[in-house]
Amino acid sequence: MISPLLPTYARAQVAFERGEGPYLFATDGRKYLDFGAGIAVNAFGHAHPHLIAALAAQAAKLWHTSNLYRVTGQEQLSERLVAATFADTVFFCNSGAEALECAIKMTRKFHASRGEPQRFRIITFEGAFHGRTLATIAAGGQKKYLEGFGPKVDGFDQVPFGDMDAVKRAIGPETAGILIEPVQGEGGVRPVPPEHMRELRSLCDEHGLLLVLDEVQSGMGRTGKLFAHEWSGVTPDIMAIAKALGGGFPVGACLATERAAAGMVAGTHGSTFGGNPLAMAVGNAVLDLALAPGFLEHVNAIANYLKQQLGMIADKHREVIEEVRGEGLLLGLKCKVPNTELANALRERGLLTVGAGDNVVRLLPPLIINEEHVREAIGILNDACLSLTHRPAKDAAK
Ligand SMILES: *Cc1c(COP(=O)(O)O)cnc(C)c1O
Question: What is d(CA 144, CA 142) in angstroms, rounded to the nearest whole number?
């Protein structure tokens, strides 16, 4: 019999009732160190006083008015995002997939509004993840997400990750843009080398394409810059963000240059809930924290410490961990054992992580962690690796 809850997730048998900083407390009283952060969402940990205050204050005033009217929180947050990034303008929505939908529509509209509606195709990369809507599963191109859902939305040409020649060959008269995650998250924590980012930018300029970045996971300070593309020195034309933007409150955004957004006039796009006052109050509060002096320096320092400690664990447990990869606090452990085995062993010992493609265990801790949290996580990781190498006698006897 089907459960009342549509069974689309393979959930771990644990439920949480309370969080505090980087810790979660389960309904059975157990305490966990949360190095998954709700899949890179709780960048400021759980129950951050500044975010609670912002949400509570707004909740007592006004929840929703619709986009039939001005929403002052949207005006404020868009101005601040514009000031902090390459962008000139921002559309607010409620999730990462919706931010990508806006980015895809904007890319197509850009060319259409310049008299070239035949240019609607977007080049994407194998291993990408852009969300679960019909267009974003087509953009991601992963069979397991496309199967059984009818004809794949047309307009996406996928090339192997890291293959710049394939990108060049894929550019044709119908190409509108290139869509890429600066660090593939779900695909196994694979950073795009900065020289490839620069080459993609030049290819876009040369062929009149838009460079569209999916920073839903890599954005909002996760890699040690406010946005991951800043490491390469190039800027996109359009960028989708979400996850940490609301620190746990659902909100997404599509940022763009004035030129790229030129076709998106009144009536071309919308969302009932997008940019709702509650989401904007939290988004503005998140930005207070992300833009605070010294914050990104903290992320870089703690990320370096964690990466160095992980390197030592990987050296010590070569039968379990093949490689440590990633940027900032978007880190991956490429496993030699099945990644689910390591993730389960970690969770049993009180450390939460997230699986990824390519047999990787992702470490996405809240950006506010300190060295003590790192040491606690490393201790658990060491124990888990030991448990996976020193198997019970049952295995050893065979
Ligand atoms: C999570 C994610 C998405 C989808 O976001 P949703 O909020 O789940 O729709 C898109 N792109 C990337 C890179 C992501 O990590």
Answer: 6
